[in-house]
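FYI - complex with adenosine-5'-diphosphate, inputs then prediction.
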Amino acid sequence: MIILMKNISCIMGERYVLRGITWTFREGEHWALMGLNGSGKTTLLNLIAGYVFPSEGSLSVFGKRFGGHDWRRVRRSIGFISSSLQERLYGSETAEEIVLSGIYGTIGLYDRPGKGDRDRALYLLDEFGCGPAAKQYYGALSQGEKQKVLIARALMSSPRLLIMDEPCAGLDMFAREKLLAAIDTMAGKKSSPSILYVSHHTEEILPLFTDVLLLREGMVHSAGKAEKVLTRKNLSSFFETAVAVRRRNNRVWVTV
Ligand SMILES: Nc1ncnc2c1ncn2[C@@H]1O[C@H](COP(=O)(O)OP(=O)(O)O)[C@@H](O)[C@H]1O
Ligand SMILES: [Mg+2]
């Protein structure tokens, strides 16, 4: 079991940001989490990582129940990529250093990375087609390269779960396709972590995603196998608008 939520609610201020979320994410699955702006996606991710606490309900990650375990340890097995992470990193560090810093979750800030760690950082950069950028300043990289570097960084500690919060936001369509292709290649490897991918565009849901959760106004609209969730009828109900759905390359394109 990767994630188990039972009737989770999250109240912030006076408001329910999440309400009655029941969800099971099993080993061997990859999930896409979809919802419009403000539907509570990032809050749901922050709950999993233990940055936000549930007001009601129960949460387990990797079979460990929230409240009964040191969540810093659970967090070490979670890779997390978000725009707020991107802003916290130093542009004056090289891509290699940024990737290398991904091990500090596991070795502690004052230990020195070893040769093996450096080799792994370069290997991961290569895997994402960023080998030539290793010595370049992170701040000078394109948005798409930055995202790949962040994924490589998250993989340094070999997480069991990789969470990506809107990694394609702000990318042009070519950079987006390149990033999606890199994610597809990563997911095809036996060593791949389970992936939780957040977006508000259905066409970013690659065939690798077995399951989809549609979140609307803090509640689960529907969740389950991708082919059942991403139908015209279900998406029209989700968007509360009759939408047209087109499938190309096993991806779903929605038009209003
Ligand atoms: N710390 C907070 N305090 C109060 N409201 C919050 C907080 N964080 C998020 N919210 C509100 O919760 C709702 C969901 O936010 P968020 O999870 O960021 O949505 P999404 O990622 O789907 O765009 C928004 O209306 C947002 O304003
Ligand atoms: Mg968000």
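The mean pLDDT is 93. Residues 86-158 form one domain.
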